[in-house]
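Crash report, auto-generated. Payload:
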Amino acid sequence: MIIGSIAIIALAALLAPWLHRWLGWRAGYVLALAPAAGFVYYARELMGVAEGRALVSTLEWLPELGVSLGFRVDGLSMLFCLLITGIGTFVLMYATPYMKDYALRGRFFSYLLGFMGSMLGLVVADNVILLFIFWELTSITSYLLIGFDHDRLAARKAALQALLTTGLGGLALLAGLILLATAAGTYEISRMGPISGDHPLYVGALVCILAGCFTKSAQFPFHYWLPNAMEAPSPVSAFLHSSTMVKAGVFLLAKLNPIMGETALWDTLLVGFGGFTMLFAAYLATRKTELKPVLAYSTVSSLGIITMLIGVGGTYGTLAAMGYLFAHALFKAALFLIAGIVVHATHEKNTEKLGGLARAMPFTALAAVVAGLSLAGAPPMLGFVGKELLLKAGLGSANAIPAIAIASVTGVAAALTVMAAFVVVWKPFFGRKPEHAGHAHDDAANNDDASNDHGHHGHGDHAPHEAPFTMWIGPITLGVLTILGALLPVYFVDAVVKSAAHDVLHNAAAIEPVARTVYEGTSLAAFDMLYISTPLLISLGALAVGLVLYVLRKPYRATTELLAPIDRVGPLRMYHWALDGVVALAKRQTRFLQNGSLPIYLRFVVTAMLVLVGVALLRTGGLGTLRNDLDDLGIVEGILVLMMIAAAYATTRQRSRLATIAILGIVGYAVALIFVLFGAPDVSMTQFAVETLTVVLFVLVVYHLPRFALFSNRATRLMDALIASVAGLAVGALVLASSAETSIAPISWYFNEHAYPAEGDPAGRHYAYGRNLVNVILVDFRSMDTLGEITVLGIAAIGVFTLLRLRPDREPFAEPTGAATFGADEPDHKRASQGEGERPHREGSA
Amino acid sequence: MHTLLAIAAGVMFASGLYMMFRRSFVKLIIGLVLIGHAANIVIFTSGGLVRGAPALIPAGEARLPDDPAFTDPLPPALILTAIVISFAIISYTIVLVRRAYQAIGTDDLDQMRSTDK
Amino acid sequence: MNSVILRTAARVLLPLLVIFSIILLLRGHNVPGGGFVGGLLVASAVVLYAMAEGPRKARAIMRIDLQVLIGIGLLIGLAAGLIGVAAGEPFMAGLWFEFPAPGLGEIKVGTPLLFDIGVYVTVLAVCLHMILSLAEDA
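Recovered output after restart:
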């Protein structure tokens, strides 16, 4: 059934384009049934999972190798499954009217559902390789979604940036997961036990996995891609940046917490990076004035909070991580959807030019207020519960980083987040609309990307109006859940959050008998937190400071503007610098190594080969003992070999083509004679015949070939002569070494034994019945090779024929015309008279 | 004899390589031929050199005598096919050079790099 | 090379060389020779003929399209291998059959011989096809 829930979404993704063709723009409502069905399934299983009965489903893949596709839904996965399918359903309903005017609606829904299925696969996969595959699928599908408006440069760049950053992290993750699996001895996460920090692979696995998780979850210094990814249409932002894509990193951190989380290194890194990201991103959020960038940086900040909380760990830290994660998914999804509605209706995304929308769109405003309060962490919202837990966990932290530091940083970040919440909710809906911004439209059009969120623009003046039901129902429902969950947690929040936290807590195994009840004493109800305590005081203080900052936002922004130069040396610079560097390097190495010149390629190949042979010769101790065998030299052999040497050298000096061919013939015939002298008559005969045919071949074409020309200068020729000489030395050394080396027994005794039966031997079929061993080898023992070789011959012949006959300027397979070089086909014996004299003179001929 | 053949193989290989380094397409073919010969010599000597004793089982015998030694039949068998194959390769290359020369009008290998664009 | 001596020599030599090549082919299993050498020899003989009479006439005396002949040669080689398979042996296993021949005693015919014939035909057709194509194109 787990597989079924993924399969139905994948099927919907495949059918999306056709459904859009048949049903028009309303097809999105039908498609929303797929995640809705998944949600119903997981919601029904929630209680069982909360009681500790994880859903398991295994698909045998390669049973012989013990490879199976394991899926497992425990408390943590259940939390994500519900968020993905639940919010996914609302996002599809919302996107249906939102994307109405897009031409490529079908494709959009296909991508979105493909992403949804990948994300669902990621959170239910039990095998780390399977998890990685789904992880990469989310990277690829999110690339397609972020760059969906592919005719805009900004969207393409943002998509590429997200893909490169998360893709690079994905590579590191793969390495980390393999190290982890090696250390743990299994690829199934559910079977991995805790890994000690002393394990030699631990640090390597940790660094690689953190690189993967931090890039995906946009932790500093990889936070830059997330705000840029706001180029995506709003439903995509709402889905990717609330409950899915960016949460994949923190999901994996939480998943691995019981396995890798017992070390101080893990805790310190997570708290350090998470805490800094939380504060830094919250600050960046307050500097933005446009809706989606504020929300984007606030998302980065929230991800920092969750990362930090996983590092803080302990009963409270873990519970806070899951509680905040759940609360954040609800309110952030709602806020992104609302931002989409606002921009859709007003064609304006700068909050300073918006105001008073509450009257025109009451439902949206209501949802915005609830979600905004939750973001600000005001009671009685789920966000308040999350933040109380967070402060409690921070104050009680036993981390290497002091609790007081964690708590105060959290307090500052909370205040900044409150200000951001006012900017995105209060200002557009209840703030005062500036007089001169009546035609903000034109500014936006100049801005180009103001129109990215809607398919149509350029309408004249029109009053903002309430969005259709299917667009605001999502935010409203999420808002209702935000309130209900905080007031009456026993209905679902307890089951979802506590069982998730239980599975993340790394010493859960130690307290197994009471495991499911470990959090029972902890109330998640908002009213139970409203008593005078340090966390509550910090919360109230943050609310007050945030409100003041909002009121004084103009001087605040002016002040922080002074710090802007710091941004120029930020990680985004590094990203561009690295990207340009890679491109430049690729260009240079291509120009250097793959310049299209065959001689240069050859020089590289030969030099590399010489280095390898040289190293091998030096390592094995050179040539071994060399025999001096020059004394038994026969006179005929000696003369033949000297001829070969002289002729081979002469080819390099010769300038006439015809003379070169004649000299080549001398080499060939001399080699043939050597063969016959040393007991290889078959080879010798073959060599004679081939040599003859080769000369004929050369003579046939020689006058059609270009004359030898001198292209290279003296220095190049000297260098080539040097390389060639060293290579020649190496070949000579190889011959000597092979004759000195006799430790390898020849295999020819087998051929000798099986060639011919002895007299009186019962003639079995195990003999080849041949006395000429060379021929027997060719046609019997190694006949398969020979068959391959004659096939190659056939192909070469057809290749030659084709090259000669099939030309653009000639009818295919036409009868050859024109005079032949030899023969009497033509009655007038017209000779082909393209003599050397007609060729352009390039070099003095011999 | 090994030493002398080693020198011969080395010189043929070096000459062939030098010819292949030249930018002229025709020299490339000549280099190819020379390197083919050198390779055959290398293979041939690796089986040991025995004068005038081909691997032919004498009539009435079932196998080659152990003494005197005979030429190992495997290297000749390998070389035999190599010779015929290299003939095919040389033919193909020659035709290729001809066609390239006709089509492009140059035999400078460095001039040909831009032709496949 | 339109010379009377060459023409006469080529006409006389051609059948002799063909017969010699067939002897090389059939005896190759026991004495130096075989399909490769035999095929090359016939090719050389026909090239000699082409030098005297022209490539078109040389193709004509072959009486069969050389490209088809390449295929026939390869099929013979393949068939020699498949006979072993048909007899339940591995591909390319050598099988021998003895025939009593009047006056000659027993004649042994084996699949390696058939395979060598395939090699002979292929090599001869390949070399001729290449050289004659070039000669025609020259």
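Post-recovery validation: The mean pLDDT of chain C is 87.
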